[in-house]
Amino acid sequence: MSDYRFQDIAKYAGTSLLALVLSACGNSTPPPPAMTLGSSALSGTYVFSVTGTDASDGDYSVLGSFTADGKGGISGGSADYNLGSGVDTNVQLTGGYTVANGTAQITLSDGGVVKDTFTTTLVSTGTSTVASFDGTGSGKLYPQVTAGFSPAGTYSFSVSGEGDGTISGSGQVVAAASGSFTSGNLTFTDAQSSISYPTVTGFLGPLSAGGRGFANIAGNNLAYYVIGPNQIQMMGIDDRFLLTIPAQKM
After folding, report:
1. Helices vs strands, H then E, count in the chain
2. Distance CA 162, CA 79 (A)
3. CATH number 1.10.3680 given to 153-249
4. Which of 102, 133, 220, 232 could cross-link to 118 by cystine, CB 3.0-4.6 Å?
């Protein structure tokens, strides 16, 4: 191949490569800006479950539900409180919320002494986190669907909380259509003690407003809230223990 022809080919190849690069740069489309969710993203019914500690109440757990209108208003709320200062059950709540930069600031109140505030990062679907509940608490916020729920079924659950020490464990129960447990088992540790129940008695009671019900597992009184047809969240309402018990139908 002559030197002239080689130079022409090299020149053409270089020009073509440069044109390809420039064309690619010229046709690239920048990614769309991230969408920031507003007040309308918080709409419908929700279940919140939190734990924390503060100077006046010590370690605590709270479980409840509320309805957000997508415009900053909250109604139809109820919650159960297990605090160092005592237990309050089925407290009726209203409130409101504001949204800035995709984060909702939520306030719940019973119109009297109970006033809770927390933040949550809004998501388009699914579970979001709860932060700064009354300053220190944290947990989860679940969209709630009560339609299609019935107590009958086999539930697998975990247990966490505080008694004589740190409580952790797991179990399984089978509930009849009436909500009564027909079989089950539970094993947990509390501080240095390990306790097993080869047979578990108890029940899931009927639902009331807010998708809330009363339950009992192995003698422990609980409030429960339906999250979905196959998922519930339970919390101990005896002042001797702090118990948080998420349960899933198998």
Report:
1. 1, 17
2. 20
3. no
4. 133
Domain boundaries in the chain? 1-30, 39-143, 153-249
DSSP state of 250: -
Q: Give the C-alpha separation, 83 to 114, whole Å.
A: 12
Flag whether pLDDT at 25 surpasses 90.
no
- Long-range contacts of 93-101, Cβ-Cβ distance < 8 Å, separation of 24 or more: 93/64, 93/66, 95/66, 96/72, 97/39, 97/42, 97/68, 97/72, 97/73, 98/39, 98/72, 99/37, 99/38, 99/39, 99/41, 99/42, 99/72, 101/36
Phi, psi of 4 (to 5 degrees): -65, -45
C-beta of residue 237 within 8 angstroms of C-beta of residue 225 = no
Q: Which one is the CATH code of 39-143: 1.20.1270, 2.40.128, 3.30.720, 1.10.150?
A: 2.40.128
Q: Model confidence over 151-199: pLDDT tens digits?
A: 999 999 999 999 999 999 999 999 999 999 999 999 999 998 999 999 9
- Topology alike, domains 39-143 and 153-249: yes
Greater confidence (34 vs 128) lies with 128
- Give the total residue count for the chain: 250
- pLDDT at site 28: 57
